[in-house]
Each structure stands twice: as structure tokens, then as C-alpha cells.
Amino acid sequence: MGSLFRSEEMTLCQLFLQSEAAYACVSELGELGLVQFRDLNPDVNAFQRKFVNEVRRCDEMERKLRYLEKEIRKDGIPMLEIPGECPEAPQPREMIDLEATFEKLENELREVNQNAEALKRNFLELTELKHILRKTQVFFDERLYCDADTGVYRSPLSFVAGVILRERIPAFERMLWRACRGNVFLRQAEIDMPLEDPSSSDNVYKSVFIIFFQGDQLKTRVKKICEGFRATLYPCPEAPADRREMAMGVMTRIEDLNTVLGQTQDHRHRVLVAAAKNIKNWFVKVRKIKAIYHTLNLFNLDVTQKCLIAECWVPALDLETIQLALRRGTERSGSSVPPILNRMETLEDPPTYNRTNKFTFAFQNLIYAYGVATYREVNPAPYTIITFPFLFAVMFGDLGHGALMAAFGFWMCYKEKPLQAKKIDSEIWNIFFGGRYIILLMGLFSMYTGIIYNDIFSKSLNIFGSSWKNNYNESTLTSNKILQLNPDSNAYTQTPYPFGVDPVWQLANANKIIFMNAYKMKISIILGVFHMLFGVSLSMWNYVYFKRRISIYVEFIPQIMFLTLLFFYMVLLMFIKWTSYGSSGEGYFNSNDPEIVKSSGYCAPSILITFINMMLFKKEENNRPECDPQMFAGQFFIQKLFVIVALLCVPVMLLGKPYFVWKEQKQRERQGHQPVEAAAENGAAGGAVVPAAHHDEDLTEVFIHQSIHTIEYVLGSISHTASYLRLWALSLAHAQLAEVAWNMLLRKGLMSSDFEGGIILYVVFAGWAAISVAILVLMEGLSAFLHTLRLHWVEFQSKFYKGEGYLFQPFSFEIILESAGQGDE
After folding, report:
1. Whole-angstrom Cα distance, residue 576 to residue 672?
2. 404, pLDDT greater than 70
3. I want to staple 90 with a disulfide (CB 3.0 to 4.6 A). Which of 12, 19, 94, 738 is the partner?
């Protein structure tokens, strides 16, 4: 649980592995996924490293597997998923068997494909010749005459016959006419059935043609034109008997080819089905082997060439687990020399590693999207799990829309494993599914705030009965549309609604927005101030952990005082106003007791005007002499004191740290030591101290940094407080959009009482439901999500979170296989 609130403690280790055991040990570490190796050969070319040949062999095996996979997908054969656990990385000696298996499969498949292509080409030629022999009979009947001596029909013209793509016929005919100057006669007929192209396996449509001409010169010209248009010419006998005999031979050969083609396809299918059963396993094995050799290329060889040396970042808590994995690898390899894992001292900043599970993973990614935490810095993720959906719900507060969102999130969580197994290739879906727990919590929190606002699809729930009653007669109600229920009268029973907002406010047309404006605006400021105070308080945790004593005195204390004395005081004024003043002016109009008058709503001051006058040291003119200008005794003196102390905090934040750094440097110079305060303030990892540069330059950098930080904090306290008003603005916008959708669509259908109302309601409900889901849930939900993200990144995390670290990226087979799988898809 420690890494949930702060990143894991990391240590840099040196690893010595015997050459024979290195492969098995790295394989065990890859299954563990807790070690990040450093490249000890940054200046060595990738093609000059020790295990480059093994990596190339793996690339070649992967190429062959991709070829097999392509052929399997082409035939639509399902590839079996890996049952149970993922297979382990095979031993190096198994690479030879895998290579032989893949080589045999590839050669066999390529040979089968070449034979099938040759057979299909032969089949295509015979099929085209069959159509030529059938189609040209009519053409010969038109151009033949009978020889009186022999009784055989002969043609006075020569001819060529062939097949051409159907779309090339018009251009082919024009070229023949122009090149031969009209001295040829072309006849063509379409082949009805499509023919399969052997090279591309596409279906193409062709036509049979026959060209009659006279003379060898025209014959040469016609053949060149046919060759240019890629027409295929076939021999066609002139005598009908010869054509019939040839046609019978062609049909016999076609039948034989069909038999051979079927046997070839069956053999190809059997080969692919056998490969499909194991191809997923083969991919995993090859990718694991390749990842191991890639990692081994990061290692150094010692002078004896018998030991591999590696450097790696590991979590300190997992050192024993890593030692056990190394021992398992050594035993598997049969080596007698145990591996050595030594801790190293370093001045380098370690990587940041926060352990996550499927629930905290999405929230941690929200933090990483802003920036990876500096090593051992406070992790905002555990607090974001609560504050993020809650602030979202303040803007999205609607019981109905929240229920829709929660139902969608619950469905994704409930169907988690089946949905993961489908591996849906959609970026939008993957974003939704990755944040399923965020969506579920946002929906549940929105249901809670919807109950607080008493808002469900812009309507209210009257569970406990309203605390307001109507004292007007019916004629007054029908004639006056801007009536208000005055709390001075007996309209209010003086007993608040037990939970949330009274349902009567949803019916108030005249002052509903005024009331909800004041309510939600004050709630937004209160939540914002507490959120920022919590962020500043977390910075104290950082200073204590990194032992930055000076920062506690000159940064944390002035910051918390500045925010408390000004903005938290403003929040206190809101609570004082709510508890000290009534909601009506009844005491002023009907009572002679001055104390009752002073505590009435008539005398309640404006918090905004009071805060502005406080900052300007200005006393508001008392235009109501019967009211007390002060909300409590000594208010003006306390406000002046708070402003003066808050202003004094600014020079402390600005000059305090540079002064203490300068004082520390002077003291160390007198003692004959180099200035190191700046390095101590930077909180080097593991207590390591980075040597400082010249003290004047360091002091200048500290002063500039502190000036920027102070200006940003002082101005940011004002702008950030105002920024939380987006909670109020988006909440009102969402409520008004929901009310508009109800009034303009669903209300019209509900107002009709006859059968036509049912038909109208049926149609209108579909439109209202579509608008509710598309605009009020999806678009408004996305808008509220982005505003909530900004409040956490800027207003909250800027108080304590630097985000200047880099992520721990361990050598993990799980991560490598997952990324490879996404790349394949």
C-alpha cells in the first residue's frame, strides 16, 4: 500500500550472469516483469552487438509466421487462442527445431501455392478455349462458303481468335479500325460467368473475339495489337468437326484439372489447419526469444568472455523475489555458478514506479497524462479516486443521467473478461473500457449529487413532502405568473427538507435560478478552497519526507497562511451568514426588537462586497442604520489583521528561501566546505548530493525560481478560486439543458390526453431519449470530465506535484506481447 501514496523505493543493481545461464535468467526476469535494464553499450551499433545473429534469426522466424498467418486469414481458418497460461520462452537449442518447422511449413505452402497457381492458370486457359470454341461457331457460319469439289465449307479470309478483358473492348476495336484502316472484321461475344485471375484471385469479366482479315501483313499487325491490349490468342480450327473434337478434349482436361485442383486445395487446407492450431503459441515463443536476445544485447561481456554484466533498476521491496527468479533460471540452465546481484550507489534519479491494479490503473494514467511524478513524490492518484468523480458529479448532478452512466460503467465492469477476450479494435471503445471504473464512480457520485439537488431528468422527487405551502387562492395563481412564496408569511413551515433541496424549487419559475445560483456558487467556492488547502497540505508531506526544513518555514507555512487568512476566511463568512441570519425580513417589518431585526435576512450582507472591501481596507457605507455593519464582534479589526499578515507572507515566500540558502552558503564557506544547500533543497534520491556550482549563480537561480513560484502562487490563488466556479456554471448549464429537452419534447407528448397523445409520445420519447444520451450524457459528460481534469491538473496538483520524473519501464513479456498483439491488429 505504500506505493499507492508514494512511488516505490528503487535501487540500481549490478548483475553478474554466467554466459550459459544468462538466457534462462533473463527469461525468468521477463516473466516477473520487475526489472528495467540499462543499455551498457550506447555507442555500439545495433548490427555489431553480440547476439545480433540470434535477433536476425528471430526476425526471419517472425516473417515466416506472418506469412503463415496471412494465408490462414485468407482461407478464413480460425486460429486457436492460447489455452491456460502463456507458454514459457523456449530454450536456445529449441530455436533450431522451430526454424526447421517454420522452414518446412513455408516451403510446403509456397510449393502448394505455386502448383495451385499453375493449375489455375491452366484451368483458366482451358476455360477460355472452351468458350472460344462455343462462341465462334456463329461467326464461322456467317463467313463460310461451300467448296463444290470437296463439299467442305471454307472461308476466303484468315482469322485469329482469343479472349480479352471486357472493359478493353471499345478501345481495342478503335485501335484495330485505325491501325488496319477498316480492313479487318471484328466480332465479339461476352462470357457470362466471371473468371478467376490466378495471380490475384480476383474475379474478372472477359469477352471472346474473332478477327477476320486477309494477308500476312494485316496478320502481323493484328497480333501486335492483341499483344498490346494483353489479349490471349488461342488456336481455333476452321472445320466444324475439328472444333467439336477439340472441345471434347478440352472438357476432358478440365474435368481432370478440377480433380487435381480439389486435391491441391484440400492439402493446402490441411496444412493451414494444422498450423492454425499452434501459430499463436509459436508467435509467443518467437517474440519471447527475440525479447531475451534484445535484452542480452544491452549487457556487457567481461574480459574472460564467460560472464555477462548488466545494470538494472529494481524495486527495493522485490529484491528477494528477483533473487529467487535468478536462482530458478540458473537451475534451469544447469549452471553451477550462482548469479550475483549487487546494489550500486548512484547520483542518477531513479525511475518512478507505482503499483496499480485494474481499479487504480485508470486513475494513475490520469496523473501520468499530466506528468510522471518525481521520484518518491506524493502520488495524487489515491486522492483522485474520490475527488475526481465527486467534482465531476457536482457539475453533472442528475439522478437519471447519473444512473445511465453508472449502468454503462457497471455493465463494462461486470462483462470485463468477455469484453477483454473480444479484443475490439476501436480506439473510442478502448478509451471507454480502459476507464470503466472511472465511469462507474462518476455515475454513482452523480446519482448522489442528483439526490442532493433533487434533480432527475429536470424533475424532482417529493419523497418526504415539501416544507412550503401555498396561501394564494386559485384566481391569484392563474392571473399572476410571477408569484413568489415569501418566507415572511406562513408559506414556509420552518422545517427544512430532510435530504437535499426541497422539491418545490423545481416548480418555481420566477426565483428558481436565483436560488440555485446562490446555492451552487457558494458550494463551488467552498469545495474549491478545501481542495486547494488539501493540495497545499500535501506539499508539507513532500517537504518532511525529503527533509527540506527551510521549505517548510518559508514556503509551506506562508502559503497555507495566505490561503487560509483570505479565502478560507471567505468560506467562514459564508457559514457565519448562513447561521447568523434568517431567510426572511419578517423581523424588520413586524418586530420592534432591534436584535430580531439585525438577525433577519434584510440585514444579511453580501459576502463578495465584504471580501472586496476587506482587501481594499474599505468600510462599507451603512445605508441601513437599523442593521449592524459587522457580522460578528471585532470583524473589521480581524479582517485588517488577516490581510496584513497575508501580505507579509508574500515577501517571506519571495525572499525567505534565497536568504537561508545565502546564509547557509556563507556558513559553509567559513568552515571551508563547498556550498551544498542547493543540492540538499533539490532532494537528491537516496540522500545523494549533487555538487553545486558557483554560489552566486546558484543563489540567482534560487531567487529567480522562487520569484516565479511566488507570483504564480499568489495570482494563482485568486484565479484558481475563481476557476472552481466552473462547478457552478456547468451544473446550471446541465440542469437548464435537461429542462429545455423536457419542455420542448416530452412535455408536449404528455399534455395530449387522447389516442393521438400516445402516438406523439411514442415518437417524441425517442427524440428525447436520443438527445438525453447523445447530448446530456455523452457531450455534457465529456465536457464535465475535461473540466474536472483541469481542476485536478492545474488547481490541485500545482500546489504540490512537480511531475518531472520518468516512468519505470520493466522488461516484461506481458507488456511486450500485448504491444505486439495491438500492432498485429
Report:
1. 58
2. yes
3. 94
Distance between CA 208 and CA 166 in Å, rounded? 9
Reply yes or no on whether the pLDDT at 291 is more than 90: yes
pLDDT recorded at residue 492 = 76
Alpha-carbon span 70 to 109, nearest angstrom: 12
Q: Across all residues in the chain, what is the average pLDDT?
A: 86
Residues 6+ apart with CB under 8 A from 608: none
CA atoms within 13 A on the CB side of 337: 13
**Residue 679, pLDDT score:** 45
Q: Which three cell numbers stand for residue 413?
A: 465492469
- Measured distance CA(195)–CA(205) in Å, rounded: 6
DSSP three-state, residue 536:
helix
Residue 362 has pLDDT above 80, yes or no: yes
Segment 709-751, tens digit of pLDDT:
999 999 999 999 999 999 999 999 999 999 888 888 887 777 7
**CA-CA distance, 296 to 23, in Å (whole number)?**
8
Structural domains of the chain in order of their starting residue, each with its CATH number: 2-92+273-344 (no CATH), 115-265 (3.30.70.2750), 360-460+488-799 (no CATH)
Residue 677 pLDDT greater than 50, yes or no: no
Grid coordinates representing 685? 534520491
**Long-range contacts made by residues 172-178, C-beta under 8 angstroms, separation at least 24?**
172/209, 172/225, 172/229, 172/231, 175/225, 175/228, 175/229, 176/211, 176/222, 176/225
CA nearest 65: which of 105, 114, 35, 33?
105
How many residues comprise the chain? 825
Q: Which residue has the cell 487446407?
A: 269
> Do residues 572 and 559 lie in contact, with contact meaning Cβ atoms separated by under 8 Å?
no
What pLDDT score does 219 carry? 87
Cβ neighbour number for residue 612 with a 10 Å cutoff: 12
What is the three-class DSSP state of 133? helix
Here the cell at position 674 is 563547498
Rounded to whole angstroms, the Cα distance separating 717 from 559 reads: 10
| Whether the model pTM is above 0.70 | yes
Taking the CA atoms of residue 660, residue 664, residue 665 and residue 670 in that order, the dihedral angle to the nearest 10 degrees is 140
Angle CA 343–349–350, to nearest 5: 55
Q: Tell me if 38 sits within 8 A of 313, measured CB to CB.
A: yes
